[in-house]
UniProtKB/TrEMBL annotation:
Parts of the chain that traverse the membrane: none
GO molecular function terms attached to this record: hydrolase activity
KW Hydrolase (keyword) present: yes
A Pfam cross-reference name: UPF0227
Domain of life: Bacteria
InterPro entries given in the database record: AB_hydrolase_fold, UPF0227/Esterase_YqiA
Protein name, UniProt field: YqiA/YcfP family alpha/beta fold hydrolase
Keywords from the named record: Hydrolase
Keyword Transport appears in the UniProt entry: no
Organism: Oceanisphaera ostreae
Length: 193
């Protein structure tokens, strides 16, 4: 069965609006596609370990018939999946340099979905830096969905980093990517699921 792996962003969860919209679309229009959206660990190395285990399992069970989509920090991680597993990825308002962005968030964190409290430390910033791919070779397998009105991330960083990918840039919008549900069918087509 083809599978979509959806990766949520920083301090988010499978209950996020975009994850729920994608799951609903698949249930209604593409029940033949298996949807996986794990609650990722709060810290980068632990989250990447989870993602690797899921991808290794999918590779073994689906003969590689899976795609990945991710939002914000999930987009950053989806890029790693595309690079390391050779699959297609859709990245939505992705974090390009989370090791820089999250410097402003060091200290105690509270995930509003799970109510988990944890400390974001310099070690976690180092883990993000280690995960970043400076020159990905997978850009032909990536689709960037970006809104210029993103109030959290500078959209120009994503345009520069993903300049060799397929790009959809919209004026306005915000970090949540307004009207994401209008892209669900196109995302599935791009991922070839």
């Amino acid at each position: 069965m083809p599978t979509l792996l959806y990766l949520h962003g920083f301090n988010s969860s499978p209950q996020s609006v975009k994850a729920q919209q994608m799951q609903k679309y698949l249930q209604q229009k593409r029940p033949d596609i298996h949807f996986i959206c794990p609650q990722l660990a709060a810290t980068p190395a632990a989250a990447w370990s989870q993602i690797r285990a899921i991808c290794d399992d999918l590779r073994a069970k689906t003969d590689g018939a899976f795609g990945v989509a991710g939002s914000s920090l999930g987009g950053f991680l989806a890029t790693q999946v595309a690079e390391r597993y050779g699959v297609r990825a859709v990245v939505i308002n992705p974090a390009v340099n989370p090791h820089i962005l999250l410097q402003d968030y060091l200290g105690e964190q509270l995930n509003p979905y799970t109510h988990q409290r944890y400390q974001l430390t310099e070690q976690h910033i180092h883990e993000l830096r280690e995960l970043r791919i400076d020159a990905p070779s997978c850009m032909e397998r990536i689709w960037l969905l970006q809104q210029q009105g993103d109030e959290v991330l500078d959209y120009r960083e994503a345009l520069e980093y993903y300049r060799f990918a397929r790009v959809c840039i919209q004026k306005g919008g915000d970090h949540s990517f307004i009207r994401f549900d209008h892209y669900c069918a196109q995302i599935i087509r791009f991922l070839e699921l």
